[in-house]
Amino acid sequence: MKIEIWSDVACPFCYIGKRNFETALSQFDEANQVEVIYKSFRLDPTAPKQPEETSVELLAKKYGTSVEEAKQMNVQITEAARAIGLEFNLDTVIPSNTMDAHRLVKLAKTEEKEASALEQLYKAYFIDNRNVADKETLLEIASEIGIETSNVESMLPTDDYKEAVISDHNESKQLGVQGVPYVVFNRKYSVSGAQPAEKFLEALKQVQMEEE
């Protein structure tokens, strides 16, 4: 079974969805027959590398609410994350452009470490509140997951993997993806949003049954 997951490093629901999907996969009898492919999706391709507004201000602007209402939205997401063991610090997130973070995931894929790269990027963004567009952050994450930092150093000034990131995003549009996370099973079935682990497990079993 081939599973493709579109997500963005700056999407809290994608982190929650990733954790729930991994829980479901760990409970799936045929997990060793599943190939997981992570696809890039950028919620805001025009975002600056250095934030000009706080994450709460941007959230309020996006939904046309007050800053206090935006903070309340963050509380609800934080509680959902805490329920599955993730401690988000959403009010102090550093919003930034995620292109280089996605490029790091693509580089990590060449060493079969893309899941680890994505996990560390989510942690840096939502828990540690680091700027994932920052060179030092990306180098540290590479080092943590066992990627030669020199490879990242040489990649960052170039356009390496940019085309792959953009291609993933364009592909999602062709599939009609409106938001992320978006999980596609064998290019036949899809699950949208940060569904609970039970929902992902149900989908895995359903696809397995129908594909036999």
From TrEMBL:
Pfam families xref list: DSBA
Cross-referenced SUPFAM superfamilies: Thioredoxin-like (SSF52833)
Entry-linked CDD domains: DsbA_FrnE (cd03024)
Domain DSBA-like thioredoxin: 3-205
PANTHER family, per database record: GLUTATHIONE S-TRANSFERASE KAPPA, THIOREDOXIN SUPERFAMILY PROTEIN
Protein name stated in the entry: DsbA family oxidoreductase
